[in-house]
Predict the 3D structure of the following.
Amino acid sequence: MEVKKLSISWQFLLVLVLILHILSALDFDPYRVLGVSRTASQADIKKAYKKLAREWHPDKNKAPGAEDKFIQISKAYEILSNEEKRSNYDHYGDAGEKQGYQKQQQQREYRFRHFHENFYFDESFFHFPFNSERRDSIDEKYLLHFSHYVNEVVPDSFKKPYLIKITSDWCFSCIHIEPVWKEVVQELEGLGVGIGVVHAGYERRLAHHLGAHSTPSILGIINGKISFFHNAVVRENLRQFVESLLPGNLVEKVTNKNYVRFLSGWQQENKPHVLLFDQMPVVPLLYKLTAFAYKDYVSFGYVYVGLRGAEEMTRQYNVNVYAPTILVFKEHTNKPADAIQARGLKKQVIDDFITQNKYLLATRLTSQKLFQELCPVKRSHRQRKYCVVLLTAEASKLSRPFEAFLSFALANTQDTVRFVHVYSNRQQEFANTLLPDSDTFKGKSAVAILERRNTAGRVVYKTLEDPWTGSESDKFILLGCLDQLRKDPALLSSEAVLPDLTDELAPIFLLRWLYSASDYISDCWDSIFHNNWREMMPLLSLVFSALFILFGTVIVQAFSDSNDERESNPPDKEEAHEKAGKTEPSFSKENSSKIPKKGFVEVTELTDVTYTSNLVRLRPGHMNVVLILSNSTKTSLLQKFALEVYTFTGSSCLHFSFLSLDKHREWLEYLLEFAQDAAPIPNQYDKHFMERDYTGYVLALNGHKKYFCLFKPQKTVEEEEAMGSCTDLDSSLHPGESRGKSSCGLGSRPIKGKLSKLSLWMERLLEGSLQRFYIPSWPELD
């Protein structure tokens, strides 16, 4: 009875909370707050917001409820100015950005609680955090939607890498990695890494776009490109993954040998140079992330103070080696323009420091983008920005007019004035627009003061009457113009439309075309084999199936043709053997039925090319069965060898080869020295030493264990009779030429008889009952 009362009280509280939520949602209506209709356009909404914001701004309206009213106005405009938020409000009646997701979560949570009430057990029975409040509290502020990803995350990935987790409901692995993910997010977010979470159940379009087809998945995004994380989800692996996303040339290692060259690169790169001094031998991840964020404005170097020779730099720039120190160098390399030193530098402190020093004192205008950043368009009378431009010729070394202009800029730095310079020979149209038509300034430097009025290039300016030589009088005249300009902006009496500056640091057309082609090919590859691989699987399967069928048909046809030729060519082979003087009177007819027609034995020649793979580096447990033959006995012995070993070709541990005795006799005799009992080697001074006949010998070589087994053919009665008759006949006919010039051959039958017992020897080889002859190492096959 008590349990029943508790369940009823929970139902009452749930209904009460739901009613309060509905009432609070009905109380806030963005359309009513801004005073516009539901069909109002963005222009009408913006107009109403500006009017109400000026009226209820706390700085202008001191009424008691003005601040709360202004907050409501801002919140209403935030909802209605965003199409996605406005659509969510129109559909679900709530101002929340994630209303669709939260509403479905509430429905799912209500069904889960109803299940609990029927069976009266608590969620802790399973010990799984499926409750939405606990499970989504970590990921809720990082949830991404498709429009948010496309419009904000992708452009922002060119300034910082993003680490994104793909999750879903009832994902046990997602729950398992949640503590590690929470720890990594807290660490990396403080270093400047963007964090995102995609719920695959409610953002299927975004999950499909990212190429994530399983949960949990973790991926990184940098420069708009996606990379998947494939290692174990631990803190160190995720940190290394984020570090691997960054380019490898962001931070240069600076020592006492290259620091002068590094700091002197400001003139060519047109950037300030930053040096970080620290006691860590590797560059900290925080510094790499900062270098990536400001890579377009600043060049970064790292000095390991524990390295030998670093004392020269630390002593020259008065660096405390016991605390991280950041120095900014601009046009002067012997003295830093700014410095910061603190233990435990934070991301925000470093960002503020770099932002204040991301331009040179007198930056060279090398592109239209840089010109717009340094000399912005005037927004109001309080936001005037003047640019003092030095028009000078390009020089390999700093000229006197430029050094004087630089010293003047250093002494008169102001928030409303920027000092820049332009190479007249590189930006001729820009310089000709600001210079008078007279020949006074031809080949000389000039100074002009300008203010941009719009983005189309319209400016008002004043060019000093005399060329700029850098003298004290020139500095006095320029200082007087700047003082007068603060009192009377009408001093800039001339007006012109400046042409866009050419990008001096851009690569040439061919390189740009190659880079574009490379990016296009990379995007196509990622699109086919990464993002849409599931859609491509049917097409790829069809293509590979067709190729496999075509290849199989060609192979079968080739083997069938070779078998037909083998069956139809024995008579031709007999004629060829008769012409060569080697008669086989009855072998083809008797053994034609024994030759396998459906299969064949693959026998390769053992040469210096195949020697290493077929013997020296043969896998453990594998053996190579080698037939010894000569050029005259090659055909007949190979045929008999194939017949004898064909039944053993089913073993994958046996390989079959043949060795030419005419080429490698010395190698064979070296091996047979280790088998004196089975095959004694005659004395080399014996007159019949070079006539020793090894044809028909078979060696089973174990390359891994360095031993071999020997098959020695036995002479048959027919072979001895044939050799005796041939010797008598040759002695009677040619008594002086009987040795080495026998006119009677042994014939193919006695030669093939040498391998008549090879099959029995092969059976004993597989049984392991043959004698083994070990050698210290395999000799080279000369």
User: Anything to note?
Assistant: The chain is about 45% helix and 15% strand. The longest strand covers residues 386-392. The longest helix spans residues 533-568. The CA atoms of residues 129 and 175 lie 8 Å apart.
